[in-house]
Amino acid sequence: MIRAGLVWLALASAAFAEGEAAGDFDYYVLSLSWTPTWCAIEGDDRGSPQCDDGQGYGFTLHGLWPQYDDGWPSYCPTLERNPSRRETEAMVDIMGSSGLAWHQWNKHGTCSGLSSDDYYTLSRLAYERVNRPALLRQLEQPVRVPAEVIEEAFLEENPELSDDMMTVTCRDRRIQEVRICLSRELEPIECGRDVSRDCSLTDALFAPLR
């Protein structure tokens, strides 16, 4: 019986250790997702309301991710309560869905050391501090462009940024996300090597709003 109890404690400790300590990280990555790409790859198959014609979602907040200089924490043990449905639904205007808001708290927000309310407040503040190029929302037809064109558009609209503080990612030969590295105080900083992986495509598809 004692041996069985020790085994149970060992397994419980191992499970607990899968998540890093909440609040132990070096900087944030603000991830902005181009909704037409997400809809084409995933959202349409899910029947997501975010992808309905006329919704007008462009660069939405994918998440604000605590990051190490090398690697990142996730699913951290925390004593903070989970967000309420009201809290997650309040993020729909910039995240597209309450389900994503919940997932981002569960995987990343728990590692911030903040309450869910404070994490969402900080995420919104980070999102609103970045100028998302209006020109990209005015596109009427799909185009194929070098990924660096999207980066240049963000740099022009955000003069406090430099190219080593952000990265553009692609998926399925489409422009997927813009990721910006921020200090804990939300000041732009240089990204770590594992974040600085710019898409090298010269003909990435960039689709217009629906």
Please provide a written account of the structure.
The chain is built from 8 helices and 6 strands, in the order αβαβαααααβαβββ. It has 210 residues and is of the alpha+beta class. The chain has helices spanning 2-16, 35-46, 85-89, 92-95, 98-107, 116-129, 134-137, 147-157, and strands at 27-34, 59-67, 143-145, 166-171, 174-182, 204-206. Helices cover 36% and strands 18% of the residues. Mean pLDDT is 91; it is low at 1-17.
Tell me briefly what this model is.
With 210 residues, this protein is α+β, with helices and mostly antiparallel strands. The chain has helices spanning 2-16, 35-46, 85-89, 92-95, 98-107, 116-129, 134-137, 147-157, and strands at residues 27-34, 59-67, 143-145, 166-171, 174-182, 204-206. The relative contact order is 0.19.
Characteristic key phrases:
two-stranded antiparallel sheet, 8 helices, 210 residues, four-stranded antiparallel beta sheet, 36% helix, globular, alpha+beta
